[in-house]
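hey
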């Protein structure tokens, strides 16, 4: 039985508690949260033991799940790793690049498992295409949210855009060549809306727009590659693939299009989207990696690379706002 302790039982933390309770082979040992309101609610509703000493909870577990604010990530991760415990930590991995580098080093030296909570990797709309032969050369992303004071301790880059940065880095088999970015702080002291262009050495270009001050929600990614277009709606959980038809596909809607090089047959398909719980899947994946001694789905290195690009974007935005 894998013994798990949870750090942070606020809004997202409660989702984690609900899912851990349903995962076979896992025992919830208890939780740590200095917020009295959250703590009393969880004790009353879940009957779960509250720990007021972080070290004692870590000592009682095989693995810990950190859903605390980002500025606490490093301290809690460090405590657990130095005690030889496995760690699931919500994105972003850490508060600073230096902390991220140190965590990657500590995980390697301690030989423990770490998974970073980039939950969109488990979104069924993305999972429907992730095993396809994807080689995008142009990517366009819009991730828009209505304003919510929760989570505003970090910029929109580290709060929202980092999801898409992580997915793009996992899809594009090339190093980043250049980044240009602009952003504006509207409701908080950090950027609330930003537009970013990432150019890769293989020629791929990604344009990303993220906002947490929009009137409507949107989480869409469009990818263009040779002979194909892939559209992913993370919010509505829908995926569409449009491509020049090679072999006949009985499941595709096909039509002919006149082009300068002659008639082309276009096939439109909508892959089957499975009804899955993304949070549960990522936690199950983490538990499985510990039990079966396999790599985690989103490693500490994945988390660090996404964080590194996010901080490069923040540097670009900071420099663009400095008067000449």
């Amino acid at each position: 039985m894998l013994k798990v302790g949870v750090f942070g039982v606020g809004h997202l933390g409660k989702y984690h508690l609900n899912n851990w309770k349903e995962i076979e082979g896992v025992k919830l040992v208890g939780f740590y949260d200095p917020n009295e309101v959250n703590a009393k609610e969880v004790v009353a509703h879940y009957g779960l033991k509250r720990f007021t000493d972080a070290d004692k909870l870590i000592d009682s577990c095989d693995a810990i799940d950190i859903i605390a604010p980002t500025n606490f990530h490093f301290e809690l991760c460090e405590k657990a790793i130095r005690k030889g415990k496995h760690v699931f930590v919500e994105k972003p991995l850490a508060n600073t690049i230096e902390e991220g580098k140190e965590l990657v080093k500590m995980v390697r030296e301690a030989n423990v498992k770490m998974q970073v909570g980039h939950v969109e990797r488990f979104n069924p709309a993305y999972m429907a295409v992730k095993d396809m032969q994807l080689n995008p050369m142009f990517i366009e992303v819009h991730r828009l949210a209505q304003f919510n004071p929760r989570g505003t301790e970090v910029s929109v880059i580290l709060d929202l855009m980092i999801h898409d940065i992580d997915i793009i880095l996992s899809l594009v088999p090339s190093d980043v060549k250049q980044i240009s970015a602009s952003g504006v702080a509207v409701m908080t002291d950090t950027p609330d809306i930003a537009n970013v262009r990432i150019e890769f050495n293989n020629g791929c270009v990604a344009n990303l727009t993220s906002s947490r001050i929009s009137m409507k929600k949107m989480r869409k990614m469009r990818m263009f590659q040779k002979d194909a277009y892939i559209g992913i709606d993370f919010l509505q959980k829908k995926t569409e693939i449009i491509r020049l038809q090679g072999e006949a596909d009985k499941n595709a809607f096909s039509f002919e299009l006149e082009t300068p090089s002659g008639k082309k047959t276009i096939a439109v398909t909508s892959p089957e989207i499975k009804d899955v719980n993304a949070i549960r899947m990522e936690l199950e994946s983490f538990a499985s990696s510990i039990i079966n001694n396999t790599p985690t789905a989103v490693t500490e290195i994945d988390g660090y690379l996404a964080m590194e690009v996010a901080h490069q974007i923040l540097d670009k935005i900071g420099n663009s706002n400095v008067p000449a």
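Residues 2-118+278-298 form a domain with the Rossmann fold fold (CATH 3.40.50.720). The chain is about 35% helix and 30% strand.
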